[in-house]
Amino acid sequence: MESGDIKGVGPSSASALAGEEKKQELAMKEEEEHQEDEIFGKFVPGPLLPLKEHIEKDKEDESLRRWKEKLLGCLESDLNVDRSSGMLGTFAPRKEPYAHTLEEETTPSGVLARGVYTAKLKFKDDDKRCHMELNYSFEIRKCD
Known about the structure:
Elements: H1 11-40, H2 51-57, H3 62-72, E1 115-124, E2 130-140
Antiparallel strand pairs: 1-2
């Protein structure tokens, strides 16, 4: 026997052992994946409901209400997604009306952003007097 050879384990036997170990490792991974499929494969998510409806659903359960409040913040008021204000400029009175085009904004996307939103536009002067108020709503939904 040559030095370095282990009795009964030659180069061909060592590669056979390595191949057998890989087969066992693959079999274990497949078994784990199969078990995960059995556990998670039967899960069916509930229907998509607006956030307000989820909040109202368990209103009488105090502990659940507090938990939702920790996750989402204050639940009693409406949810204000974005708020912005800006100055249009100084305008002198004239016969023709002024026209101002607002910058285009990108709406949120994805499943969580879908729903009906309400918005309010106010036109105030420097003295905080409201000269015009416009309430409107819009819907973000998946395009067909």
